[in-house]
Amino acid sequence: xxxxxxxxxxxxxxxxxxxxxxxxxxxxxxxxxxxxxxxxxxxxxxxxxxxxxxxxxxxxxxxxxxxxxxxxxxxxxxxxxxxxxxxxxxxxxxxxxxxxxxxxxxxxxxxxxxxxxxxxxxxxxxxxxxxxxxxx
Length: 136
Description:
The chain is mostly helical and 136 residues long. It has one domain. The protein has helices at 14-38, 53-70, 74-93, 100-103, 106-121, 128-133. The longest helix has 25 residues, at 14-38.
């Protein structure tokens, strides 16, 4: 069977799509940090105290979310954020219900495993790590 190029397991587009996944995950995650620390986009909760557990989460989401978005120190940033999301899931979501659809933890689980994947796969060719540290 003749598959289109982008569906083949060795697709030349895979590295670029990896960069796209990294960028979209990073920018989406970064928004959670800006909401907690800067109340942007505005929420009913307002900002959180920086020296609280939620403040620490917001700081990680803001700083490391930005690092993931631009692809800088991606493996370290993604590994830390994967752990943060696992922690968030078991601490905040799991006690409400076992089922993610009922406990609101869908995003935490997806972020956890996307970041875990990025920690091992890297950020792809369209990021600062690749531009700065690429082997010649």
